[in-house]
Write a sequence for this structure.
C-alpha cells in the first residue's frame, strides 16, 4: 500500500513565486513537468522561467485565493476537484477559493489534455505539493515576523497561529512570503486530517450554468466574427467535384464562400444565414476510394475472426493444448456497431488568423497538439498562437481530435476574417471520428470444473485494442491465455470514444463469464472471485489491475445489491471491470414491465482510491453507467455506400429519462492515491445489463444495440 | 430582412432578422442571449427550450417573427432577484456535468411544475423525457425536479 503523505517528488524548481504589483503572491507551477515522471519537460527543468508555467495560484492581500485550473473541463469535474486538492494542502476554507480556467497561450501551456480519466491520477502529487509549498512559505513568512521557528506555528483555514495566542491571516503575510525562497521537502497532510478532500463541493461553474451565462465554445463572440457552415463530402470515399455557389452567395447575410480541400465553407453574419447558405450550395461529389456498407464491414470482420492472420498480443501457457484436453469448450461471438459521440454542444471553434497572431478559442481536449497541427497546416510559428479553452458541452473523446479547429484556422487564414466554425447536428454526426465497429470471438476450455484456457480474438475497423489492454482481467487468472487482434482498414474515420478500447470489450468478456458460470454451474460473482484468487500479485508488471482491490470491489457490489437475495420479480446481472486505473463492479436489476425487460436499478461499487469530491464522483459514475446502458440498448450506427444512415436525433436514439435506472454508487473506503472516474463506470454496464436480461428472459444477447435483437414480447416468458 | 419587436424577459427588444429565422438564432446571434442552446435544430433534444407565454417551447424551429405578441422567457430571465426554486434545486443537488443541456432542462421543468405543482415520479419522468442529457445526469435531474416541487409547494 502506498504511503500517502510522502511523495517521491524529486524535481526541483517546478514552483516559482512572484510578488504581485497589486499586492499578494503569484505561485506558478509547471503542471505536467511536476506530475508525470515520464513526461518530457518543455525546457530545461533546472532553468524554468515563469513563462514555462501553466498553472497558477494567486493569494491576495485579503487572503482570498484564485486557482487557475490548468486542465480542460469537459464535464468530468476536474475544474472543481483539482483546485480542491490544492486548497486542501494550502489549508484555506473552500469558500475563499475562486477557480478560473487558466488562460493559455503558447508561452504558458505545455500539455493540457483531458482524456483517459487521468487528470486526477497524474495531478495528485503535483497539486498537493504545490498547495503544501505555498502553505509552508506563508508559515515561514509568519514565523520570521514573530521571530520564531516555523515548526512552532500551526495552520488552519487560512490562519497561522504562533501558539501564544497570536494569529496572522494568510493575507497579512502574503507580501513577505512572496520574497522568500521556495522551500523544498515540505510535509503533506495526513489524509485523516483532510477538510476539503472527501467533502462534497458543488461544481464551481454551477451559477453560470443554471443562469445561462456564456461558458461554452458556441457562446464565444468577437466583433466582426463570421459564422462558417461547412459542406463536407457526404460519404466517406468521396471528393468534391464541380460546385456552384451563386445561390449560396445570394442568401442574405452570406459574406463569402471559401473552398478548402474537398470542403466548402459558407461565411455569414449569423448562424441561420450560414446554414441556409450551405444548403443552397450545389456541389457534385466524385468517388475517391471505396464507399463502404455496414454489410461489407460485417463480412470483413467475420473473415478476420475466421482467419489465422491475427496479431498475437499476449500468450501464456499453451492454449492449444488446454483446448485439446478440455471436457468442454465454450465459444461465443459478440458484435457492436460504430458509435458517434454526439456531444450535446456540436463541434465548433473560433479562429482569427492575422499577419502577426493566430487567436483560437473553443472547446478542445488537446489544445497543445491541436495548436501544433494548426501551425503546420498554415505554415506559421507556434509563438503566434494564443489559444483559449472554453468549457466543453461534452467531450467523450470527440474533442481530442482538433479537426474542427483546423478547419476554423484554415478558413480564417483564407478568408482573412475572424471565423467561428459551427457544425450542425447533421455535420457533427456525419463527420464523426467514430468508435469503430468491433467483433470479438471468445473461447474458453473447461476441465474438471475449472477454466483451463481462454482465447480472445478481436476484429475491429481500423484496429482497437492497444497498449496494456490485452493484460487486463482475466490475464493472470487463467493459466493458458491468448489474445489476438486483427484490423480491417477503412476510410471511415475512427477514434477514441468514452472508455476507448474497452467500452465494448468489457461487454463481450463480462457476458462470456456469465455464460461460463452457467456452464460451470457456479454463481457468476463466485466465478470472478475464484478466478481472481489465481492472480499472483506482482508476478507480471504488465498486469496493472489489483486482484485484491477488484475482490473487495466485487464483494461491496454484491453486498449492496443483495446479490442472490432479491425479491421475486427482480432479475440481476453482474459485471466487473478494471479500466483507466479504477476498479468497478456493477449489478443491474431488471424487472419485467408489460412483458419487456426494464432496467430498474444499478448498484455500483468503485475503487478509485481517495474520493476527492464525492458529489462529483457519484455524478460521473451515474452518468457513465447510464451512458453505457443507453448505448448498449440503443446505439445503432451504420453506413450505406460510405454514408451514415442516421444524422440526427429523430432517428438516432439516445437514452432518455424514462429509460434510465436509478444508480446507487458505493466507494471502497481506502486511502490510496486517487484515480479517475470519467470513464471506468461505463464499460461494465452493458455486460451487467445483458446478464440481467438473460436472467429475466432467458435470452442471451451477443450483439449491440440490444434493442435490435431483443425477442418480441412473449407473455410466456417468466414475468 | 424584417424588423420586429419581441418581448423577452419582460423587456421589449427590437430585432432585424430574416422572417424565417428561428427564435433560437435571434436569441443567440442577434440579442446575445446565449443561455439557450443549439443541440439538434429539429426539436428533438430540448437544449433550446424557452417559455413562450409560459409554455415550454423548442426555439430552434419557431420563426421569431411570428412571436411579436408573445411573452418569451429564456434561462437568463428565469431568476428574478433570487434564483428560481428549480435553479436552487439544480444547485443543491449539483446536477450538471458538462452543463450544456441544463438550461433547456430547467426551462422544461419550470413550465411543467407550473402546470403540475405536485407531480409523482412517473409524471416527472414523462415531462422530462423530451430533453436529452448526453452526460446522462438524468438521476439528478429527476431528483431536482422533485425537490423543486417540494420547494414550490
Amino acid at each position: 500500500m502506498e504511503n500517502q503523505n510522502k511523495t517521491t517528488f524529486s524535481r526541483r524548481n517546478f514552483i516559482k513565486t512572484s510578488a504581485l504589483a497589486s499586492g499578494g503572491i503569484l505561485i506558478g507551477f509547471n503542471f505536467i513537468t511536476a506530475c508525470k515522471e515520464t513526461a518530457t519537460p518543455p525546457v530545461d527543468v533546472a532553468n524554468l522561467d515563469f513563462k514555462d508555467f501553466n498553472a497558477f495560484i494567486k493569494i491576495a492581500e485579503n487572503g482570498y485565493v484564485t486557482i487557475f485550473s490548468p486542465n480542460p473541463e469537459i464535464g468530468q469535474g476536474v475544474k472543481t476537484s483539482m483546485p480542491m486538492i490544492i486548497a486542501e494542502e494550502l489549508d484555506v476554507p473552500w469558500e475563499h477559493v475562486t477557480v478560473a480556467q487558466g488562460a493559455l497561450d503558447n508561452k504558458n501551456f505545455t500539455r493540457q489534455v483531458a482524456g483517459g480519466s487521468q487528470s486526477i491520477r497524474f495531478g495528485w502529487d503535483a497539486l498537493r505539493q504545490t498547495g503544501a509549498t505555498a502553505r509552508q512559505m506563508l508559515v515561514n513568512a509568519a514565523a520570521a515576523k514573530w521571530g520564531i521557528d516555523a515548526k512552532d506555528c500551526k495552520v488552519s483555514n487560512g490562519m497561522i497561529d504562533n501558539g501564544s495566542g497570536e494569529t496572522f491571516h494568510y493575507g497579512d503575510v502574503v507580501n513577505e512570503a512572496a520574497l522568500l525562497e521556495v522551500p523544498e521537502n515540505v510535509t503533506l497532510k495526513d489524509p485523516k486530517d483532510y477538510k476539503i478532500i472527501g467533502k462534497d463541493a458543488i461544481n464551481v461553474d454551477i451559477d453560470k450554468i443554471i443562469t445561462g451565462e456564456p461558458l461554452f465554445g458556441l457562446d464565444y463572440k468577437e466583433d466582426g466574427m463570421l459564422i462558417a457552415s461547412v459542406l463536407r463530402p457526404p460519404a466517406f470515399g468521396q471528393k468534391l467535384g464541380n460546385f456552384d455557389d451563386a445561390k449560396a452567395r445570394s442568401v442574405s447575410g452570406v459574406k463569402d464562400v471559401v473552398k478548402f480541400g474537398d470542403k466548402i465553407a459558407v461565411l455569414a453574419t449569423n448562424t441561420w444565414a450560414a446554414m441556409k447558405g450551405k444548403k443552397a450550395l450545389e456541389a457534385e461529389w466524385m468517388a475517391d476510394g471505396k464507399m463502404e456498407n455496414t454489410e461489407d464491414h460485417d463480412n470483413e470482420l467475420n473473415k478476420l475472426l475466421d482467419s489465422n492472420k491475427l496479431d498475437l498480443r499476449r500468450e501464456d501457457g499453451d492454449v492449444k493444448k488446454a483446448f485439446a484436453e478440455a471436457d468442454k469448450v465454450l465459444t461465443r461471438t459478440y458484435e457492436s456497431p460504430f458509435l458517434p459521440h454526439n456531444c450535446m454542444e456540436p463541434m465548433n471553434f473560433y479562429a482569427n488568423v492575422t499577419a502577426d497572431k493566430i487567436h483560437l478559442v473553443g472547446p478542445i481536449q488537446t489544445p497543445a497538439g491541436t495548436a501544433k497541427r494548426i501551425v503546420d497546416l498554415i505554415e506559421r510559428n507556434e509563438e503566434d498562437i494564443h489559444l483559449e479553452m472554453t468549457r466543453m458541452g461534452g467531450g467523450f473523446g470527440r474533442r481530442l481530435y482538433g479537426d474542427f479547429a483546423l478547419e476554423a484556422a484554415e478558413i480564417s487564414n483564407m478568408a482573412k476574417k475572424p471565423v467561428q466554425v459551427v457544425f450542425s447536428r447533421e455535420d457533427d454526426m456525419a463527420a464523426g471520428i467514430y468508435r469503430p465497429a468491433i467483433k470479438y470471438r471468445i473461447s474458453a476450455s473447461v476441465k474438471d470444473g475449472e477454466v483451463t484456457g481462454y482465447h480472445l480474438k478481436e476484429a475491429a475497423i481500423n484496429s482497437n485494442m492497444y497498449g496494456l489492454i490485452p493484460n487486463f482481467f482475466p490475464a493472470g487468472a487463467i493459466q493458458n491465455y491468448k489474445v489476438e487482434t486483427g484490423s480491417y482498414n477503412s476510410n471511415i474515420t475512427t477514434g477514441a470514444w468514452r472508455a476507448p478500447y474497452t467500452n465494448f470489450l468489457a461487454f463481450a468478456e463480462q457476458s462470456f463469464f456469465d455464460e461460463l458460470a452457467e456452464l460451470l454451474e457456479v454463481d457468476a460473482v463466485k466465478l470472478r472471485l475464484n478466478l481472481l484468487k489465481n492472480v499472483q500479485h506482482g508476478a507480471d508488471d504488465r498486469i496493472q489491475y489489483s486482484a485484491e482491490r477488484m475482490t473487495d470491489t466485487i464483494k461491496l457490489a454484491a453486498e449492496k445489491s443483495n446479490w442472490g437475495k432479491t425479491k421475486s420479480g427482480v432479475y440481476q446481472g453482474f459485471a466487473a471491470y478494471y479500466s483507466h486505473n479504477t476498479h468497478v463492479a456493477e449489478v443491474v436489476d431488471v424487472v419485467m414491465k408489460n412483458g419487456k425487460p426494464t432496467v430498474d436499478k444499478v448498484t455500483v461499487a468503485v475503487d478509485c482510491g481517495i474520493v476527492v469530491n464525492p458529489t462529483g464522483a457519484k455524478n460521473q459514475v451515474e452518468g457513465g453507467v447510464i451512458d453505457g446502458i443507453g448505448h448498449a440498448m440503443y446505439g445503432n450506427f451504420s453506413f450505406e455506400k460510405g454514408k451514415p444512415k442516421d444524422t440526427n436525433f429523430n432517428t438516432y436514439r439516445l437514452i432518455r429519462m424514462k429509460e434510465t435506472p436509478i444508480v446507487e454508487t458505493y466507494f471502497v473506503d481506502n486511502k490510496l492515491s486517487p484515480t479517475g472516474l470519467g470513464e471506468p463506470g461505463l464499460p461494465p454496464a452493458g455486460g451487467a445489463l445483458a446478464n440481467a436480461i438473460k436472467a429475466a428472459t432467458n435470452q442471451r444477447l451477443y450483439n449491440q444495440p440490444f434493442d435490435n435483437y431483443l425477442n418480441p414480447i412473449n407473455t410466456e416468458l417468466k414475468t | 430582412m424584417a424588423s420586429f419587436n419581441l418581448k423577452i424577459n419582460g423587456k421589449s427588444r427590437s430585432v432585424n432578422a430574416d422572417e424565417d429565422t428561428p427564435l433560437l438564432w435571434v436569441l443567440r446571434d442577434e440579442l446575445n442571449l446565449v443561455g439557450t442552446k443549439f443541440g439538434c435544430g429539429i426539436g428533438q433534444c430540448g437544449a433550446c427550450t424557452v417559455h413562450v407565454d409560459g409554455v415550454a417551447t423548442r426555439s430552434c424551429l419557431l420563426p421569431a417573427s411570428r412571436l411579436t405578441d408573445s411573452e418569451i422567457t429564456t434561462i437568463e430571465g428565469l431568476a428574478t432577484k433570487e434564483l428560481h426554486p428549480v435553479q436552487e434545486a439544480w444547485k443543491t443537488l449539483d446536477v450538471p456535468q458538462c452543463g450544456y443541456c441544463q438550461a433547456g432542462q430547467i426551462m422544461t421543468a419550470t413550465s411543467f411544475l407550473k402546470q403540475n405543482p405536485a407531480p409523482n415520479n412517473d409524471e416527472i419522468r414523462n415531462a422530462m423525457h423530451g430533453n436529452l442529457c448526453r452526460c446522462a445526469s438524468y438521476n439528478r435531474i429527476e431528483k431536482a425536479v422533485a425537490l423543486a416541487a417540494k420547494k414550490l409547494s
About this structure: Chain A touches chain B through 65 residues (CB under 8 Å). The radius of gyration of chain A is 28 Å.
